[in-house]
Each structure stands twice: as C-alpha cells, then as structure tokens.
Amino acid sequence: MSTVVLTVAQAFALATQQHGARPFVCVLPETAAIYGVPAGEISYADAKAQILRRRSAYAAAGYGHGHRVGLQLENRPAFFLHWFALNGLGVSVVPINPDLRSAELEYLIGHSEIALAIAPHARQPMLAAAALVAGRQLQLMDGEVQGTVPAAPFAPPLAQQPIGVLTECALLYTSGTTGRPKGCILPNRYFLHAGAWYAGIGGLAQLHAGTERMLTPLPLVHMNAMAYSAMAMVLTGGCLIALDRFHPSTWWASVRESRATVVHYLGVMPAMLMKAEASALDRQHSVRFGFGAGVERSLHAPFEQRFGFPLLEAWAMTETGAGAVVIANREPRLIGSSCFGREGDDVQVRLVADSGAEAAVDEPGELLVRHAGEAPRDGFFAGYLKDRAATDEAWADGWFHTGDIVRRGADGQLHFIDRRKNVIRRSGENISAVEVESVLLQHPGVKAAAVAAVPDAIRGDEVLACIVPAAPLADAAARSALANELMAWCLARLAYYKAPGHIAFVDALPLTASQKVQRGELKALAAAQLGQPGCVDTQGLKRRSA
Questions:
Q1: What share of the chain is helix, strand, coil (3-state, %, to 5)?
Q2: Which residues pair with 368 in a beta bridge?
Q3: Cβ atoms of residues 501 and 464 within 8 Å
Q4: For 92-114, b where at least 16 C-beta lie within 10 A, e where not — what string?
C-alpha cells in the first residue's frame, strides 16, 4: 500500500526509508570555508537523525502548528534540518535574505509575526533591533549551535487543527510592482507539487532516482532552490549541492568536484562564464542539463556548443509555483529566441493584448495562467498574507495575472518579452521601484525621487534613481558628494542590490495631473541620463556587506 504524503516532513521521511545511505546534501570546501561549517556530505539517514533531535527540542520549547520561524541561514545545510524539523510540527518557515537591512527587517518581522529567528550569532543584533522597532517579541538562536531552544513567546495559534497538505509550509516575500514586498503563503501542497512536477517532466530534464547530483548557486530565500531543487532531490533521492552563491572564477571547478549532473542558473551566469578564455576543460564535467531562465539570446547557442549541455529555459513565479510552470525541455527549443516552451496539459494559458482582446499569433500580451481541471489554484500560493484585496486582484476573472509580457508563435511556443515597467529585474532579483523610492525620499537632501530600470549588459537591468535635490547642487563635486550620501543611506536600509547603480540629478520628474510619476516617461528620462554630466555612476559602491 502506498504511503500518503501530506507534508514536506513526511516526504523527507519517506525518502530516508528508500535512500537512507545515499547523500542528501553536499557542502563543497569553498562554501564550507565561507560559512564556517564542515565540508562533505550528509546522508539521508544522518539528516533524519538530526531533524528528529531538533523537532523534539522545538516541541519541548512550545513551538507548534501556526507558529512562524525566520531562517536567516543562507544556503547552509542547517536550513534544511531546521525547515524539516519545524514542518513536522506544523511550523511555517520564513526565509530571511541576509542582505536585508533595518527598514526591510522591521517590516518583515512585524508583518510575518515570526516567533523565533534562527541566524548566525553575528546577525542577531540587527534582527533584535528590528524586532524592537517593530514592537514584536522575538526569540533568537544560532542555527549551527546545538543548544537549548528558547521558549516560544506565545502558544501555537492552530494547536487544535490537523496538520496537512494545506498547512502553511513557508512564507516567502517577493517584490510586487508597487509598495512593500508581499508575503506569499506557500502550503505543503505547493512544495510537494513542485518536486513532483520536476521529478516527472522528463524529456531533456529527465531525473533518475537515486543518482542525480543537483548543483545550485541560487538562494534558498527564493522558490527555485527551496521548492524546485530541494524537493526534486527529496522526491527522487538525489543529492543537493547548494553553493553560497555564484562564483564565476571557481564555478567549473565546483561543477567538476561536486560531480554535478544538473545545474541551475540565472541569465546573468552564462554571460559571465562565456567571458572566460576557452579551455580544454570546458566539457570535462558530468552535467546533462541546466535549468533556469533569462539566458541572453545571442549567447544561448554559443554556450551550449562550448560547454556541451542544453540550457533549458523555464517560466514560473513565486505565486504560481508548479501550478503553472512552463519549460522548454523538448526539441525544438528555438534556441536564441527567449522561448520557454509550451504549456503542458495541466496548465492553461491566455495572452491578453493591451486592447483586452486575446493576443494574436506573435502579438505581445500579458500572460494569464491557471492550473487545468477543477482546481485552478492547485500548486499555486495560497494568497498574500494580510492582503486579500491583492490576492483577489491577482486572480481577477479566475486567472492569475502575471504582469509578464509574452508572445506565442505560430507553432504554439511561448516567448518571454518583458515585465511590467516599474519592476526592475537585476541579476535575478525583483526590485520594486516604489520601495527604493520610499527610502530615498526619507533623506533630507531629496525633494523628489523616482526609480527606473536601465539596461545592464551583465545584470539585465540596473537601478537608476532620478533625484530632484532639496537644494541646488553647485557643481560635479556637490553631485558626487550627495550621490555618495544617498548610497550610504540606501545601503544601510536596503539590500545592496536594490540601491541605485546610477543617480541622476534632475530639475523635475514627469508627473501626471494627480502628481503621480508617469512611469513610461520616467523610463525614457532615465535612459537619457546615462553618461550625462548630471548622472553619477554609483555601481562601484554596490557591494554585498560582509
């Protein structure tokens, strides 16, 4: 009789029965040194033992169904051990990007109402300070130290309810088109569906049970690594190799050393790797395919020819999960055309033109998706936390409105074109222009501010801020000084990648009659500022903090 799996924890428990001696995670020496953790592999059986010990400690400390716990553990193996331990108790995890700063942490802690944050000791003071400002009682503990779990500050809110497939498994924050990041409620079903989809799609993305070694440099605060990579390996008994991040100079050494059979990528990665000199080692690896999105069209074919494996372009969002995911995993893939394949039988797609009518062949239109069958939201997020209106708006007329612009060719294949005009996509990170503007406007030297995307050859987009200064700036030195001030201001309050890479000082912003920024006009204004005397290049100041 088959085992009914309702939670991520149960899926892992089943994997340990089938693949106990096989490796679950692998930590390469480079990543181990950066994190200060042991290098090597952890088997499914060893991970299970650690998970059960942690689960017992959490239960004894009073954590249970309905609690949320923040994980600021980056891509450490401990992330999975704590996640699966907490999931077995009905506790939802909230991955916390280590690049977030004070204003962002205050919002996340207050909005999510996490009871506990697990983070390295050095990061705990910032979390504690943010919790104080947010008015939240927050317990803190080090995820790598085996010690006493601090007592839960309040009782489990859903203690009397059963834990199952619809129980919240994680809360992932994603930048929308406007305003604050939204908390996407992801139930167990979301993760189980993602893993099952990946394990079963076949074609050029065929996964073989018990033998795959999947390498990802993508962060576990995003759904790609947390839902697709991790769950695909759990459901097939594979090994996950999570790097701390993408290191171009050591990438191929990591691929070879890890014996990776699958790699995950963002579009920025192939562009960087192709800059290296060709080598006899380029094809000395075990990779069968790459899974990702956004490869530069002109580099797609040359990359595959040089390194000897296909880059399979896919489309999904945090909100859609695998409820409506599309991937070009079968030939013809139309390489070099931003093609991400055609939807499977379990996904329904509409493309809606600006006129509101169905887009014609090769006509751009907004991508609307839903799951096929009687449950159109199956596999999707459960909704935005504390924002029913935004959830309903996203699902208007029974379709999920993605905000992405796509065209369908005569052969039925889908091609990605662009995103909505006020979302900046930099190196795989979605950045809300409004969020950056809100921080800039708090600086005393700023009278008005508006943020837009400008093209970047490596990162796709870069952030450009148009600033109307509070007082006239006499010369280039004054502009440079204020630009440096604004960068320091932003870097103290925002993740480094959200800070402007260019700051242009202008006399006025394009506004509507109601004094709202005209986003279309702003985009043209921003593009025109690059290279002009009033525009200060601040890219060199955008650095990830230690």
A1: 35, 25, 45
A2: 350, 401
A3: yes
A4: bbbbbbbbbbebbbbbbbebbbb
Average pLDDT over residues 475-493: 95
Handedness of CA 483, 543, 519, 105 (dihedral sign): negative
Return all residues near 258 (Cβ < 8 A) that are at least 6 apart. Answer: 26, 28, 213, 215, 241
- Crossing angle (nearest 10°) for helices 44-60 and 8-19: 140
Tokens of 411: 């052969």
Placement of tokens 């996509």 in the chain: 425
- Residue 408 to residue 364: CA distance in whole angstroms: 8
Local structure of 273: helix, strand or coil: helix
Spatial separation of the C-alpha atoms in residues 540 and 546, rounded to whole Å: 16
C-alpha atoms less than 13 angstroms from C-alpha of 93 in its C-beta half-sphere:
30
Q: How far apart are the first and last CA of the chain?
A: 51
- On whether the CB atoms of residues 267 and 303 are closer than 8 A, the answer is no
C-alpha–C-alpha distance, residues 481 and 465, integer Å:
15
Token representation of residue 453: 């995307």
Question: In this structure, are residues 204 and 329 in contact, taking their beta carbons and an 8 Å threshold?
Answer: yes
- pLDDT tens digits, one per residue of 220-270: 999 999 999 999 999 999 999 999 999 999 999 999 999 999 999 988 899
Beta strands in 321-480 (DSSP E): 326-327, 347-352, 365-371, 383-384, 400-408, 414-419, 423-426, 429-432, 446-456, 460-469
Residue 421 pLDDT more than 70? no
Residues in Cβ contact with 360 at an 8 Å cutoff, skipping those fewer than 6 apart: 353
Beta bridge partners of 460: 426, 456
Which residue ranges form the domains of the chain, and what is each CATH number?
Answer: 8-406 (3.40.50.12780), 426-541 (3.30.300.30)
Q: How many residues belong to the chain?
A: 546
Of 276, 334, 275, 343, give the one whose Cα is nearest residue 310.
334
Place of tokens 């209106």: 389
Give the best-scoring range by mean pLDDT among 86-90, 428-432, 439-443. 86-90
CB-CB contact of 480 with 536 (8 Å)? yes
Q: Which two tokens stand for residue 397?
A: 């007329």
Taking Cα atoms as reference points, which of 218, 201, 231, 205 lies closest to residue 288?
205
User: Token pair for residue 294?
Assistant: 């956004």
How far apart, in whole angstroms, are the C-alpha atoms of residue 82 and residue 69? 10
Q: Which amino acid is at 407?
A: R
**Which tokens go with 127?**
């979390």
pLDDT in tens, 68-103: 999 999 999 999 999 999 999 999 999 999 988 899
CA atoms within 13 A on the CB side of 43: 10
